[in-house]
Amino acid sequence: MDMLVEWLEQAPGVTFLVTSRAPLNLRVECILEVDGLPTPPAGAPANPRIHSAVALFDQAARRMHPRFALEAELADVAQICRLLSGVPLAIELAAAWVRGAACAQIARQIETDMGWLVTTMRDVPARHRSLRAVFEHSWRLLTPAQQQVFMKLSVFRGGFSALSAAQVAGACLLPTSFNESEKRLDL
Predict the structure, then answer these.
(1) Whose C-alpha in 66, 88, 152, 173 is 20 to 30 A from the C-alpha of 159?
(2) d(Cα 171, Cα 54) in Å, to the nearest integer?
(3) pLDDT in tens, 80-107
(4) Where do the structural domains in the chain lie, given as residue ranges?
(5) 34 or 112, which is more confident
(6) Cβ distance 44 to 2 under 8 Å?
(7) Distances from the Cα of 15 to the Cαs of 9, 22, 23, 154, in angstroms?
(8) Are 168 and 184 a contacting pair, CB within 8 Å?
């Protein structure tokens, strides 16, 4: 981080594109939150030219099974993409299963248990080999105080208000401290 700050000071006209799970907390930073890829709404026709999630599934499936026919599986592929909220890693993990299962089977399995979305590919980092691995890696990045807040918030199903979060978990919207060593989750 210090090197990035030094570069920005030495060359103020330079622009960096940085991907991170958390803001860098720099004055010059512009944050762009990235959501899942666009998926077709339920009941609407899926179009890979419009719905990037479907296009990604098709591309990943063809790498695993060159004769994969998207047109024959389009409705089920759209359902898979919706179930996975357009998350690229999850879509790629699901698409890898087309060699051994029809997309309808993959969708049914996702509905029951996303835990089976794993890969054994050696060129995939361990933290990306399953959705569980992604969550475990992210969990380890949290401070103990942040973990406590999330554990308390787990009583909610769906969403919750800031007031509910404050009452149940002691979470608040504004930071309680600007000291780097005392970071905690402040919703």
Answers:
(1) 88
(2) 37
(3) 999 999 999 999 999 999 999 999 999 9
(4) 52-135, 143-182
(5) 112
(6) no
(7) 12, 18, 16, 39
(8) no
